[in-house]
Amino acid sequence: MKFIGIGDNCIDCYIQTGEKYAGGNAVNFTVYISELGGEAAYLGVVGNDENGMLIINGLNNKGIDTSHIEIASGKTAKTEITLTNGDRSMANYQEGVFEFFTIDRKGLEYIKGHQFVHTATWGRCDTYLKDLHGNTVISYDFADQHELEKMKSIAMYIDYAFISYKEDDEYVRNILVKLHQYGSKVAVATLGQNGSLAYDGCQFYKYGIEDVNVVDTLGAGDSYIAGFMFGIANRATISDAMKLGAVRASKTIQYFGAWHA
Q1: What is the pTM of this model?
Q2: How many CB atoms lie within 10 A of CB 111?
Q3: pLDDT tens for residues 30-69?
Q4: Alpha-carbon distance 11 to 50, whole Å?
Q5: Beta 204-207 vs 69-72: how paired, if at all?
Q6: Using CA of residue 102, residue 59, residue 119, residue 133, what is the dihedral sign?
Q7: Given pLDDT bands bounded at 50, 70 and 90, which one contains residue 96?
Q8: CA–CA distance, 190 with 36 (Å, rounded to integer)
Q9: Contacts for 100 with CB less than 8 Å, ≥ 6 apart
Q10: From CA 28, how far away is CA 119, in angstroms rounded?
């Protein structure tokens, strides 16, 4: 199975230490898929600066197909990260050249050559979902952006919808039900230390977390999604896919940064 992440990338800069790592939801997804043994590609745009090359070289080192990364004149997107007891928070985001990201017809045809496509709410790819729908299996991360109007406008084109939240309660269950009603086949919420919750239109599924030493939560949600979708691609049940997501996320949170080249 061939996977592709499309859209957002950035350099994650840790304010306290000055360290920086390649990241971004779509980029992270492809790296985790590759580490799981899948064939992965990334399509997006980076700047013609040191940070842009850090992303491209890092992906190449992970065996990711980078042939459709555009290099534009300007700065690569950057996110400033702070850590408090291992829990990350985003202090500042500079979008750089990604502000002008678009996909042309050639790019869309290239994407359709992959069975599984992943993007996110920051990926500037919403307008392309209708065209890709039906040709690929689409996963989409709404993260903590729970606006129902946006969900209603695109969920019909999404097979596996993901959100992030904090606990299993009536609010999050309602969001998952709405996502399914709007058209998504399965809706999943990652709940941090409270595990994950999924809904397929018939029932809710729950899974906990793997007990590990937490160093840095950056990339935890992205790695869960990669593990879940890798499971789905290999015909796992929803429950087994949730377990694969949790196991993959547990590895990510044991080191600094989303991933290392």
Answers
A1: 0.95
A2: 22
A3: 999 999 999 999 999 999 999 999 999 999 999 999 999 9
A4: 10
A5: unpaired
A6: positive
A7: very high
A8: 20
A9: 45, 72
A10: 11
Closest CA relative to residue 227, chosen from 182, 155, 160: 160
Three-state DSSP class for residue 153: helix
Write out the two tokens for 99.
């502000």
Residue 62: CB partners within 8 Å, gap ≥ 6? 30, 31, 34, 35, 259, 261
DSSP 222: H
Distance CA 119, CA 161 (A): 10
Classify domain 2-252 at the CATH topology level: UDP-N-acetylmuramoyl-L-alanine:D-glutamate ligase (3.40.1190)
**What is the residue extent of each domain of the chain?**
2-252
CA 10/CA 25 separation, integer angstroms: 9
Beta-strand runs (E) in the chain: 2-6, 10-14, 20-23, 39-47, 69-72, 78-84, 87-94, 116-120, 137-143, 160-164, 186-190, 196-199, 204-207
Q: Could you read off the pLDDT of 194-231 as tens digits, one per residue?
A: 999 999 999 999 999 998 998 888 889 999 999 999 99
Contact 14, 83 (CB under 8 A): yes
Q: What is the spatial distance between Cα 171 and Cα 146, in angstroms, rounded to a whole number? A: 10
What is the rounded CA–CA span in Å between residue 99 and residue 104? Answer: 16
In whole angstroms, give the CA distance from residue 81 to residue 24: 12
